[in-house]
Amino acid sequence: MHIETKRAVLRQTIGITGVFSIGLIIGWPLSVIGAVFTALFLQAPIGMTVKASAKLFAFSIGLMLMSWLMSAALLPYPVAFLGMVCLGVVLSFTWAVSGAGLLPGVLALMAALMIPNLTVQSSDLTLVLVFWVPANLLIAGFVSGLMFTVIRARTPAQAASKSSADVFFDPTRRIVRMSLV
Q1: Which of 58, 44, 29, 24 is nearest to 136 (CA)?
Q2: Among 33-47, 68-82, 153-167, the range of highest mean pLDDT
Q3: Burial (CB count <10 Å: 0-12, 13-18, 19+), residue 107
Q4: What is the DSSP string of 94-145?
Q5: If residue 1 lies in a helix (H) or strand (E), which one and from where to where?
Q6: Which of 34, 71, 166, 174 could be 116's S-S partner, Cβ–Cβ 3.0 to 4.6 Å?
Q7: Residue 2 burial (CB < 10 Å; 0-12/13-18/19+)?
């Protein structure tokens, strides 16, 4: 096994297990989502900076709050509510495919699907999700940065030299297929 692979495995093992274990011990809400976000961040070639983590937190809390407010406002109007959900799904896929990135696309999809559907069930549960998804992102970003600081990775120049070529795809076809599913 290559030395960088060993480092990556060690970073992921300690980071993910640490977040999952601490979440279970202190009982923070949705700590499993924090462990999943940590796993995603630790697969990157370099660690997440504090600035990037803060931006992602601000983006996600804004997105979740906006989705919650719109869902709560449109809940009494089923046709408008369904239209908002459908439009949100299509826009999140369009945004992800147009270059926003995987994680912002996933967050937009979560805001388009989970928040409205939970609003129908329980506004209290929805508010827990609106707060704790971004909080878990922030925790995962911090743990990711810490793990990359403690267990160093290759330099960014070395990591970039190993990147694969982009595969061509038709964005419109992908958006339509993802939205239909």
Answers
A1: 29
A2: 68-82
A3: buried
A4: HHIIIII-HHHHHHHHHHHHHHHHHHHH-HHHHHHHHHHHHHHHHHHHHHHH
A5: none
A6: 71
A7: exposed
DSSP letter (8 states) at residue 29: T
User: Per the structure block, which two tokens stand in for 67?
Assistant: 């989705």
Of 146, 175, 171, 136, residue with least CA distance to 20: 136
Q: Which residue has the tokens 């504090």?
A: 50
At residue 74, φ and ψ (nearest 5 deg) are -95, -5
For residues 146 and 22, the answer to whether their CB atoms sit within 8 Å is: no
Residue 104, class by beta-carbon neighbours within 10 Å (0-12 exposed, 13-18 middle, 19+ buried)?
Answer: middle
Short-list 153, 152, 150, 143, CA closest to 53? 143
Q: Give the C-alpha separation, 114 to 64, whole Å.
A: 10
Say if residue 163's pLDDT is above 60: no
User: The pTM is what?
Assistant: 0.75
- Residue 168 has a pLDDT of 64
Q: Band the pLDDT of 134: cuts 50, 70, 90.
A: very high
User: Which candidate, 108, 104, 168, 147, places its Cα nearest to that of 17?
Assistant: 147
Confidence of residue 102 (pLDDT cuts 50, 70, 90): confident
